[in-house]
Automatic annotation (TrEMBL):
This is Predicted protein. Its main location: nucleus. Residues 7-22 have a biased composition (Basic residues). The keyword Transcription applies. It comes from Arabidopsis lyrata subsp. lyrata. It is found in: Nucleus. Residues 1-30 are annotated as: Disordered. GO terms for cellular component: nucleus. PANTHER family: TRANSCRIPTION FACTOR, TRANSCRIPTION FACTOR IBH1-LIKE 1. GO terms for biological process: regulation of DNA-templated transcription. It comes from the Eukaryota. Keywords: Nucleus, Transcription, Transcription regulation. InterPro entries: bHLH_AtIBH1-like, IBH1-like.
Length: 81
């Protein structure tokens, strides 16, 4: 009987640890990732809707890719001189 209580207690502690770390529940870990993404994307802290945040993220990625192309072209132009 005591073993049963002990194992039940261990299982409950393990489940509480999963909740605290965000592992085990898919929505918790997604929320953590979305929170981190909000910090990385300019203007992302104001966006509370995931679809808007993901759209803004895609736009920002395109912006960065265009900036890289521009800087490479600029570098090539000046390296030929």
């Amino acid at each position: 009987m005591e073993e049963s209580r002990s194992s039940h207690r261990k299982e409950r502690n393990r489940m509480q640890t999963k909740k605290k770390t965000g592992r085990g529940s898919g929505s918790g870990s997604i929320q953590i990732k979305m929170r981190k993404l909000r910090v990385l994307i300019p203007g992302g802290r104001r966006l509370n809707q995931p679809d808007l945040l993901l759209s803004k993220t895609a736009d920002y990625i395109m912006h960065l890719e265009l900036r890289i192309r521009f800087l490479k072209a600029l570098s090539n132009m000046y390296s030929l001189s």
